[in-house]
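A common beginner's mistake is to predict each chain separately and then try to dock the pieces by hand. The better habit, illustrated here, is to supply every component at once so that their relative placement is modeled jointly.
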Amino acid sequence: MTKVRINRTILLTLALLLIQTSVLPWLVPDAWSERLLPNLPFIMSVFVALFGGRHPAFLFGLGFGLLEDLLFYGHLMGSYGYFMALLGYLIGLVSDRRPRTIGFTLLAVGVGSAILDTLIYLVYRLFQYTSDSYGFAVYWHIVPTLLLQVALALALYLPVRRWMLKAASASDENAG
Amino acid sequence: MRNKRLFILMIGLILFIAMLGFTSGRTGLTWPERFVNDAFGTVQGALYRPVGAVSEFFRDLGRLSDVYKENEELRRTVAQYTQDKIHYNMVENQNKQLMKALEFKERQQKLYNYKYIPAQVVANSSNPYDKTIKINLGAHDGIKPKMAVTSVDGMVGLVSKVSEFTSTVMPITELDPTSSDRISISATVLGREEQTFGIVDYDKENNVLQMTRIDENAEVKEGDLIVTSGLGNVLPMGIIIGTVVSNEVGDFGLTHTAAIKPAAKFDHLTDVFVVIAPDVDAPDVDAP
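With all components supplied together, the output reads:
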């Protein structure tokens, strides 16, 4: 059983969020800037869900989701907060008592990212801020973003395992 | 246990929908939001520019061969500019004299006295449906919502949310005519300002910027430069929006609709200008 060092993880995620908004846009070529939109705090909340359980993941997803909502605020606020909390909780629930292999982690990031982008598309569609068809949204940004997210999760996997986790000692009470 | 979970989910859903409804179409920000925006903006600014400089450097290395041609072109433009400047000074002086002769009021004379304040982009959004840009000027520097933001190429967008030291810019490609918080830009063709008039918005269905409600007798050709008209007093006059790609009969057959290619690029922006129009309705201190 492992335990997440939550303070370190929060600091790392804040740094990753800054990188996502100010550094990554420069690395993405012009033609792809509307299609590759990584969401690093979401990857981190999947890690928290897998290694720390569903309740920390719920709060983590909620906090960083709302922070992203605020930083990107144009039309609506709240969609990232709600869905990242929900997905963090659900991924924590599904992965309970399952082996934490790298394959399962990547699968969770990929599926989670597709579901998150779909739900956010549906909210903006409902409020009529977009009129793209769902098929177009999948082709235009959901699939490219998903692939990038999986690649980034792969890159983050080892550092997170090394520095963000610690083996829980017998005296620790972690009921999960 | 299962009941409790469902209960929390329902409460969360209600809160979520309430929040969506409450935040849609709001212009102000509460103080915690402004604080978080400013705190992040400071660090984002420190990251965005250096990374941008390095990235631009490598991009420029790739197109060194174009620099010679570009230099040639710039030289020609400067020569043209010097001539135009002389002409402009003459016309401006004449205009001022005529205004005086016709007894224009102080307020009317200051109407077109725009200030261009340089600002720096500090971050981009990664929400696919809220492609906002953040700049490092805020209420402290006199920025207000709905001010126009331009780059050297043309109009980028409008200021949408203002914090103390940073503000959020909504690109013109997000101005959806069917959305609830629409803002219309009145526009005209450069050189034929008196004859043509239309409203610029973004057609999300076909992903083009378009100018609608053009009079069918008005002359709008491919390659014409579209600029803001300043009518309606929401936006200043004479900001470049883009060039006309095609002009066709509009939805109802009575007016024409032109497709426009935006002049500004929305990726990898660094320096932009916020256009501040003189507040003509405010009480004038210097007035005699």
